[in-house]
Each structure stands twice: as structure tokens, then as C-alpha cells.
Design goal:
globular
Length: 325
């Protein structure tokens, strides 16, 4: 009996070491810039489903901090004047797309009979900035772990598809760098996938997409307040605090330094290079959350709502860019 238990424990230890070794090797490939962000995401999905994720308890925090670090680092490669111009051009489309997506998402959720809180989280994630919006809204509406996990699962699945599909569609439609960057920022949920897709398309697309997406992320604050009213919750009574994306301020400072402090040009390229490596690792870790159980737990109705909303916002954004911009 003891021999069997010892053998079982030994196998578990070997499996854990194997999982850790696989993670270390792939992160090493990311650090050496041998694999691109989309391939890193794909490796993450394959790794978690074949070997498992030995660091699942730390995954969420690692993704959050690495993404914020990467976004701030990318600011050192951007020009403030161009960013302001891009932000102005995307402002109207941002407002139209956010509120139309939230309204359509509410109606779609009722039609599909998706659970109310799950439906609202998916709508907010699609309208604003994916997982970050869901993380901010979930404590306000007091969603349970299952509701939050389903919404995150839907968003992460669609993000993974977008990272590969959008550059292909952009080239097929012969979109300019400017138009593709704006479309990415409007139609792709998470900041990580927006940056990954835009970076693959080109430097100008990356600058426009990052700037417009971060400006869009600030809408977490008013949407959180509106959500509190709709769901009749008060942050004081529940102890809930609205999560403000403070790192966006650091991103702006990085842009200002790069634009107005000449000495910054010496180290800026190196910081941007490190930031892009950080983004690649972030996408690998995001992929490593998408195991088969996550896919199964999502369910048909939430996934359909996410897909319909995604097609809606992508179509609306593309139509606006092609015909009105």
C-alpha cells in the first residue's frame, strides 16, 4: 500500500516538474523574442491542455501586472501629438460603440435568456476593455464566481480568435495602418489582444490602437457608476470600490517623456523592446488559462451573446471607419 502511495506521489512530482519545465522553456522563448505574440497565445492554449498549468494560482496577478508594465513601456515609443490626434478621431466612435453595444447586449441577453449578471458582464467586457472591465464591474453587481468565470471565458475565447483573425481581415480589406489601429481598439476586447494584433500590422497601427484603447478603458469609471444605479448597489454600503486604471497615467507620462525629453531617446527603444517581450509573455499566460474545462463551462447562450455582440461592434466600427472616417 505504501509503495503504491509513494509511486503515486512520485508521479505527481514528476508531472509538476514537467509542467514547470515546459512553462520555463516557453517563457524563455518569449524572452529571446523567438516566438511572436500570437504564437505565444497558441502555445499557452496547447500547453495548458496537454500539460496543465502549475502556476494557475498566480496567473491572474501575473497577467495584470505584466500587461500594465508592457503598456507603460510601449508609451516610450509613442509621440504625444500623434496620440492626441488619434484620440480625437476615435472619440466619437468610442462613445457610439460603447453605448450601442451595452444597449444591444442588454436586449440580446433578454432574447437569449442569458443570466442577467453574466449578460451584463459580457456586454461590459465587449463594450469597454474585456477582462479589466469584467474585473471592475463584477464586485459592483455582486456576481458570483461562476458568473464572472463564464463572462471571462467568453471574452478570452473571442480575444484569442481576434488576435489571429483581425490582421488577416485587415490585409484582405487593404485597411491603412491608421484605420486598422482604430478598428482594433474598437472591436477587440482586451488591451493585450488589441496591442498584439496592431503590433503585427505595423508601428502606426500599434500607436493608434494603444492610445484609443486606453482612452476607451477610462470609460470603466462612468459605466461602473451607471451599473451601480441599475443594479441598485452602493459602493459605501457594500464596501465596493471602483477600480480605476491608474497605470494609464503612467502611460501618458511615458509618452510625454518620449516626446519632450530628448535624452529619453537613448533608452526608449530598449524599454519598448522589453515591453513587447512582456506583452508576448502576457499572451502566453492568457492562453494558459484556456483549458478545456473553461471552454465547457462557458455554455451556449453566453457564448452566442458574446459572438453576436462581437460581430455587431466589429461591423459597426468597420462601417464607421470605411464610410464616415
Amino acid at each position: 500500500m505504501k509503495t503504491k502511495q509513494h509511486s503515486g506521489t512520485h508521479l505527481l512530482e514528476v508531472n509538476l516538474y514537467l509542467q514547470q519545465a515546459v512553462f520555463v522553456v516557453i517563457i524563455g522563448l518569449c524572452l529571446l523574442s523567438i516566438i511572436s505574440p500570437p504564437i505565444a497565445l497558441l502555445f499557452g492554449i496547447l500547453t495548458v491542455n496537454v500539460f496543465g498549468n502549475p502556476f494557475i494560482a498566480f496567473n491572474h496577478k501575473a497577467i495584470t501586472y505584466l500587461l500594465q508594465f508592457s503598456v507603460v513601456g510601449l508609451g516610450f515609443g509613442m509621440n504625444a501629438t500623434s496620440a492626441v490626434s488619434a484620440g480625437k478621431e476615435g472619440f466619437l466612435l468610442t462613445i457610439i460603440s460603447i453605448f450601442s453595444t451595452l444597449i444591444f447586449g442588454t436586449l440580446l441577453g433578454k432574447w437569449l435568456k442569458t443570466e442577467k449578471k453574466t449578460s451584463h458582464l459580457i456586454s461590459c467586457g465587449t463594450a469597454i476593455c474585456g477582462g479589466s472591465a469584467i474585473a471592475a464591474i463584477s464586485p459592483i453587481i455582486k456576481s458570483n464566481e461562476n458568473q464572472t468565470s463564464i463572462a471571462l471565458g467568453v471574452i478570452f475565447i473571442l480575444n484569442s480568435i481576434a488576435l489571429f483573425a483581425f490582421p488577416i481581415i485587415g490585409h484582405q480589406l487593404d485597411l491603412s495602418q491608421k484605420d486598422f489601429g482604430l478598428w482594433c481598439a474598437i472591436a477587440i476586447h482586451d488591451t493585450s489582444s488589441v496591442i498584439g494584433a496592431a503590433n503585427k500590422y505595423g508601428a502606426e497601427a500599434l500607436q493608434i490602437a494603444t492610445t484609443v484603447k486606453l482612452a476607451r478603458a477610462l470609460w470603466i469609471i462612468p459605466i461602473s457608476l451607471v451599473t451601480a444605479v441599475i443594479f441598485n448597489t452602493k459602493s459605501r454600503s457594500t464596501g465596493t470600490k471602483i477600480k480605476i486604471p491608474y497605470f494609464i497615467g503612467l502611460f501618458i507620462l511615458a509618452m510625454l517623456f518620449n516626446t519632450y525629453v530628448p535624452q529619453t531617446s537613448i533608452i526608449a527603444p530598449h524599454i519598448v523592446g522589453i515591453a513587447k517581450i512582456g506583452l508576448t509573455i502576457t499572451l502566453f499566460l492568457i492562453g494558459a488559462t484556456l483549458n478545456i474545462n473553461t471552454l465547457k463551462s462557458v455554455g451556449v447562450k453566453p457564448l452566442l451573446q458574446g459572438i453576436f455582440l462581437w460581430v455587431f461592434i466589429a461591423g459597426l466600427g468597420l462601417a464607421f471607419i470605411l464610410y464616415f472616417n
